[in-house]
Amino acid sequence: MTDQSDSESSIAVGPTTKSAASNDGDQLDASGQTILKLLHKAAGVAEANSKHALEMAQTLSHQLRAAEDRIGELEAEVQLYQEKAERAEQWLHKIFTEIEERLIRQPEEKRRRMSRP
């Protein structure tokens, strides 16, 4: 009887061991597939982030170029207005000198000459 019960217990253990190995294999396969799915998902997210970052960099690059162009235009305008301001100052100086010479000095000299008999 002992031989028979040992055989039965062996037989009973045999399929259970295969079943456990099969379950372990199924869990391992499921875990591997889950990991691969997560890896693919992470790669997709990383690719989308990279694409978004590249698009943002291009947008910012275009905005920077436009700002640099506008700065160049404004610098040219500043130069133009500086030149106009310098010319206006030259004219004001010339007008001031003319007023001083004709309306202040010459009349004073005439008055001095007239006051000297």
Give the topology:
Elements: H1 2-115
Please characterize this protein's 3D structure:
The chain is an all-alpha fold and about 120 residues long. The protein contains 1 helix and no strands. The protein has one helix spanning about 1-115. The longest helix has about 110 residues, at about 1-115. The chain is rod-shaped and about 145 Å long. It starts with a helix and ends with a helix. Mean pLDDT is about 85; it is low at about 5-15.
Keyword list:
0% strand; 117 residues; mainly alpha; rod-shaped
Coarse shape: rod-shaped
**Average pLDDT figure:** 85
Instruction: State the secondary-structure class.
Output: mainly alpha
Helix content: over 70%
Number of strands: 0
Series of H and E elements: H
Residue fraction in strands: under 5%
Major β-sheet, in short? Answer: none
The rounded Rg comes to 49 Å
Quick take:
The protein has one helix and no strands. With 117 residues, the chain is mainly alpha-helical.
